[in-house]
């Protein structure tokens, strides 16, 4: 009688995804009590004020007008050439760094994280992540036998904690001589924080200082999954220019996703885009990631690539797409402003929000508070260090009332 | 001055995909000399007699009629529940084995191979594959630091070489106590061979004999990517019944793909379906693969899942889909018959073809012959042990003339 067949490294707790479980509960509550009486702030996808998923018309009109062969045909392993151009354009806009840049298509942003962690670290290595973090960074690291160390995202002034970043960065690099450090900015998940350009300069200075030792290999992974909903115009892309002419032993990988900016979450498309001062290193990245793609998913969603290429190439379509996106970006910003204002009014402590889909509330007993809020039909995601409220999914009106509800429960529990 | 940043295990030759290169050359030739004067037998996708990709109308009419939210929403990590039911139905039809069965969505068949190899072997282990093989089995194994051993697919009578399979299987299992063995049947890529039900019984008997040692963990991966174009009616699914009530230390994983059967190559959807006599082992498979999915691609193409579920649930749609598929299956079988007949007429030696997209011609100097054939505008894929002709992509008329062209060049070179 045996009870296991998997290799030791592949045995995991028999647990289902917690966020999906919560989202399902929220849907049940909606059925029972009506949409107007439930605040469902669980899933990280843009919903209209009625709670329905937003699907950009400019994207889906294009998608459905395409010949069937655009869906059916295999894409190239690294991605269709015109997509790989379009995705760099969409990512950097006018702030493309002066460097060798190569992109490889990945299924969403997730694929770019896994390529970077798997290909740029060794088994047993430690990845550097902030203490407020997107959980899959840890899932991915653990899957491949890597560990995770956490730097403090904020200092006591609620700014980017450059000291904690530096300390952890240098400790790990000195030990490993090779480090993948992840920064999720702009519009961090789950806090909504975006590093300022000055903070980026500080990060780069630390990297440059440590790059003087030619034995160090520094890999910075920047997760920009939410960049299309961050800042005014393209101001949150300015920092890309700072990655021009870096020392050759600093490799920057940008994880770009079409999930949010094109409302194509379920179509699974993104890209890993590398920035290097050395052509050979950029080429190595391309072939390393292509090998990994071939060995994991073969190639990515052809139709999703085609949609982006077609919109990118046609000025009228691009303009219509940008205008539609601007409407949703503005809607999101208004919701977040409403939440932040209401939080201030009731003295609910929140982390510094700048951009994006989420706002976080620091607390010690997140699960307990979340359970109590469920009783009041407010569904949000409990994290280790607090609660994540998805402004992307909740109307402005509900964003105004949620902080008081949360604050009340927190006070009761204390 | 450094020239590499990747970890040692992630550095690969800077080579582009050879088949895509050939296919591009064939397209150039078509532009120059006209479709009627070129035989493009490179890519493994079903094309009509005009050389255009076949996109099943029943599939794409359904796809394009779906609400945008079916494309936009995230799917669950393991796959939508109704898809996971539909895919088992489509895979097994009336031959579902009596066992615990669990499925997990994967991007095409590739994802199911990678999940099985990664989760059921240890680094340094050797995977067992036949000597005529789909190259990505090796790419995947190498990516994860696994080795590959080859058994001879055919004996001197051109039947499945059960002796070679047994010998290699037992050698590896005795050494490793854990083995992933891959059988690509029915409609093997690249030979078109399908194991007979009697041959399957022999394979299972070898597994059962070796399962008597409770320390052995036997994992059989069956790649059925081409099953929807194999045999008459569902005869090529009968063998699934043989996996009922196996010893608990035999785990069968079936890799099912929607690429061919639904002409959705570029949409990247398939499933890894496990068969076990032990509920815990089936659950372990589900959670192990779910963890891997979360850590590699997060979730799969939602719209592709939805199409299969919708067709599967609606008897009228299912009937229309099956009827359309039957037309293409019949077209494919006629092409293959024409090729086999013409090969016999000119004494061109081919490997025993039963079903599917490809026919193989054994020879020692495949690259040289392929190069000469390119000069005559016949494009096929040179492999280590021979040439792969894609009947899926070539009209019946061209299938009739290709064998003589190949035979002539082979005779000239000898």
TrEMBL record, chains A, B:
<keyword id="KW-0032">Aminotransferase</keyword>
<dbReference type="InterPro" id="IPR015421">
    <property type="entry name" value="PyrdxlP-dep_Trfase_major"/>
</dbReference>
<dbReference type="GO" id="GO:0030170">
    <property type="term" value="F:pyridoxal phosphate binding"/>
</dbReference>
<dbReference type="GO" id="GO:0008483">
    <property type="term" value="F:transaminase activity"/>
</dbReference>
<dbReference type="Pfam" id="PF00155">
    <property type="entry name" value="Aminotran_1_2"/>
</dbReference>
<comment type="similarity">
    <text>Belongs to the class-I pyridoxal-phosphate-dependent aminotransferase family.</text>
</comment>
<dbReference type="InterPro" id="IPR000796">
    <property type="entry name" value="Asp_trans"/>
</dbReference>
<protein>
    <submittedName>
        <fullName>Aromatic-amino-acid transaminase</fullName>
    </submittedName>
</protein>
<feature type="domain" description="Aminotransferase class I/classII large">
    <location>
        <begin position="67"/>
        <end position="402"/>
    </location>
</feature>
<dbReference type="GO" id="GO:0042802">
    <property type="term" value="F:identical protein binding"/>
</dbReference>
<comment type="subunit">
    <text>Homodimer.</text>
</comment>
<dbReference type="InterPro" id="IPR015424">
    <property type="entry name" value="PyrdxlP-dep_Trfase"/>
</dbReference>
<keyword id="KW-0663">Pyridoxal phosphate</keyword>
<dbReference type="InterPro" id="IPR004839">
    <property type="entry name" value="Aminotransferase_I/II_large"/>
</dbReference>
<dbReference type="InterPro" id="IPR015422">
    <property type="entry name" value="PyrdxlP-dep_Trfase_small"/>
</dbReference>
<keyword id="KW-0808">Transferase</keyword>
<dbReference type="GO" id="GO:0006520">
    <property type="term" value="P:amino acid metabolic process"/>
</dbReference>
